[in-house]
Design brief:
Structural class: mainly beta
Number of strands: 26
Radius of gyration: 21 Å
Distance between the termini: 42 Å
Largest sheet: 7 strands, antiparallel
Strand content: over 45%
Shape: elongated
Mean pLDDT: 84
Number of helices: 3
Order of helices and strands: HEHEEEHEEEEEEEEEEEEEEEEEEEEEE
Low-confidence stretches: 1-21, 209-215
Length: about 300
């Protein structure tokens, strides 16, 4: 009988009990007044720029919380002085509304498999609530920062009662991150609509504690690379698996079941560029991740 690969690789899956100490102010319990508005400690928002207009797009929520005494509510608003819709934004980095940018983040050295949290939302028609997680290895200056992994959650569906989200991390390299940037938007930043509301509480993450390094994962390979049309997956001792392919924005563009005898994936019709593949068991347990370069 063939060895069960996953029984060795996935030795122990745990939800980090000390994650609130790792994700800054993860329960949004602590807030500091900016004057008219307040910001959650350890987070940056658009309030510093909008409070002069008596507008607080990010607010402490105390009447509708999942746990503890506070949550965070983000609201998209039309600002007449700017002549534009502006989303509620909160980030562990620095939000610069004038330059429409977010830089930096909090110190973080874990390699989680997923980020979780609890939310309610009420997006305007056609809008979506979005939370992005970026695991970054810092360079000598910000222009040399490298994204090690990313996770994205979004929802266009109104949710009145608290629900849990789970955003799986897609790793782009084997490097250890040094920084975590979490960006929460009440509205799609590429198509902002006034009136969209997102409330978030109790952010967390899950990670793997691996007791044995799995030697057999080295036999899982892809070829050819670069790819012109079809890419083949050598599954090693696995009899079947599922491959998910993502573009560099973290968007899933393809999913396919694989077996030892049917192990090719067609990339015909996809734009040339870099793609990330993630091989999983048929139960959805991640096994191995790698990169593909598609050429024409």
């Amino acid at each position: 009988m063939k060895k069960q690969l996953l029984s060795i690789v996935l030795i122990l899956l745990v939800s980090m009990t000390n994650s609130e100490a790792q994700i800054v102010n993860a329960g949004f319990e602590n807030w500091t007044s900016l004057g008219t508005c307040s910001d959650p400690d350890g987070w940056s928002t658009t309030n510093a720029a909008t409070q002069a207009l008596s507008l607080c797009l990010t607010e402490e929520e105390t009447s509708n919380v999942y746990a503890g005494s506070s949550a965070i509510t983000l609201t998209s608003t039309f600002i007449g002085a700017l002549g534009a819709n502006v989303p509620g934004v909160a980030s562990t980095g620095i939000v610069d509304l004038q330059n429409e940018s977010i830089t930096g983040g909090q110190a973080f050295i874990e390699r989680p498999i997923a980020f979780t949290g609890w939310y309610t939302n009420n997006p305007a028609s056609g809008d979506v609530s979005i939370i992005n997680f970026y695991l970054i290895k810092e360079g000598a200056n910000p222009s040399l920062d490298d994204t090690v992994g990313l996770a994205t959650w979004s929802s266009p569906t109104p949710t009145a009662s608290y629900s849990m989200f789970n955003a799986s991390v897609l790793y782009l390299s084997q490097d250890a991150p040094t920084m975590l940037q979490i960006n929460m938007f009440s509205s799609n930043p590429d198509a902002i609509q006034a009136g969209s509301v997102l409330t978030v509480d109790d952010l967390d993450y899950e990670t793997l504690i691996v007791g044995i390094q799995e030697e057999e994962t080295r036999y899982i390979k892809t070829y050819p690379n670069p790819v012109v049309e079809d890419v083949f997956f050598s599954l090693g001792n696995l009899e079947n698996a599922v491959v998910n392919v993502f573009n560099v924005l973290g968007e899933q563009v393809l999913t396919q079941n694989l077996t030892a005898s049917s192990n090719s994936v067609s990339m015909i019709g996809f734009p040339a560029g870099t793609y990330i593949w993630q091989l999983s068991s048929t139960k959805g347990e991640a096994i191995k991740t790698g990169k593909l370069l598609l050429t024409k």
